[in-house]
Write a structure and sequence with these properties.
The protein is of the alpha/beta class. It has helices at residues 44-51, 73-79, 96-106, 111-124, 140-152, 170-182, 194-200, 218-225, 227-231, and strands at residues 5-13, 19-28, 33-38, 58-63, 66-67, 80-83, 158-162, 186-190, 203-208, 211-216. The protein contains nine helices and ten strands. The strands form two sheets. The chain has a six-stranded mixed sheet, sandwiched between helices. The protein has a four-stranded antiparallel sheet with strand order 2-1-4-5, covered by helices on one side. The protein is globular.
Amino acid sequence: MTPLIAVHGLRFRYDDGTRALNGVDFQLYPGETVALLGANGSGKTTFVLHLNGLLAGEGEIEVCGMQLSKDTLPRIRQKIGLVFQDSETQLFMPTVLEDVAFGPLNLGLSPAEAVDRAHHALHQTGMAEAARRAPYHLSAGEKKRVAIAGILAMQPEILILDEPTTSLDPPGQRDLVQLLRDLQQAKILVTHDVAFAEALAQRACFFEGGRIVATGSVSELVDRFGWSKIESCAP
């Protein structure tokens, strides 16, 4: 099976000299969900920010058969939807519907087409009744769903979620698990939440010192590195 994402030898150093990635190899295959585990500063978020060109290091990145480059970046960004840890960074329009339609409008769709996509994405995420509400009136769980709807309206093939359970109470976390299970896109989850990762991921990668040092099921990595070690990463 051809991977949707193939990364070889990815290296990156910040301007202050800090080496954040030290030769990362990674593959994501159609339909699978992969959890990225590891301590704060181990390279997880730095890694995923390379996948749609928000950071640029050394190495090879291929997304949906395209080598990541200046020329292919616009098309690759349509293939990958990135949901940030803080949902409020993605919600800035007066109403939920306008927020979710913003991305399709910027793709060049007509207003009617963008609104149709937005309504469909809100229905997918269970937020259709909130279309006319102001985003700042929403709960943390509702904001997360709207942020995901905004990404789904772009019709990506891959979803990347950075610490998606942050600020969510247990019911909100359970609702998010069910939502993500129902979505067909391949997914990468950057998370410290082992229970969340176990509920969704078929495979996990453990980051340490800017490298993937182990790959396996979530439970295998918990056993290998020690439950307390992974739990201690939690913010």
